[in-house]
Each structure stands twice: as C-alpha cells, then as structure tokens.
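Subject: design request, 88 residues
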C-alpha cells in the first residue's frame, strides 16, 4: 500500500524507510456502532534524509478525483528533529 515514491509540487521524492505507521478510525456514520478505518498514517524518511508525515484516506473526499487520497502533512528537516528529551 505504501508507494516507493511520489511527486509533490513538481518534485520527485523516493521513500527510503517507513519509520512508523498507524491507523485512524471513527464510528460508522450510519450509527451502526461499528468502527470504520478512515486513514493510514506514515512517518517516512525520504532519500535526502528528511522525515515526512503522510496519510492515505481510505475513501476519496466528496467531489474529488479518485487519485486524491494521499496527503503530505509535515516535512521535518534534520535541524528540526526533537532531541532525546523532547517528545513528538
């Protein structure tokens, strides 16, 4: 499911490593009591050493194209990484 690379703002990025992954769930919108998997989150390292946080929406947003399901949330530069005493 995780792509080997992607293009953002016209620039190609290669995913070198998945550092962390988790899932986001919400109650079903039809009030059935079931939980629905909404997003797959990833914290990745790209080929230049920076970290990014991205996610995949399980369902495309209403009115969007079907391929608009991956979103880039954060780009963490090497200088911005928290030290051992800091929490993320």
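Subject: RE: design request

Done. Sequence follows.
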């Amino acid at each position: 499911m995780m792509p080997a690379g992607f293009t953002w703002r016209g620039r190609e990025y290669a995913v070198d490593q998945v550092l962390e992954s988790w899932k986001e769930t919400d109650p079903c919108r039809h009030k059935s009591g079931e939980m629905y998997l909404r997003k797959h989150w990833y914290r990745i390292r790209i080929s230049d050493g920076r970290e990014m946080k991205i996610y995949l929406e399980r369902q495309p947003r209403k009115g969007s194209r079907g391929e608009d399901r991956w979103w880039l949330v954060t780009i963490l530069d090497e200088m911005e990484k928290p030290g051992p005493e800091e929490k993320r």
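The mean pLDDT is 81.
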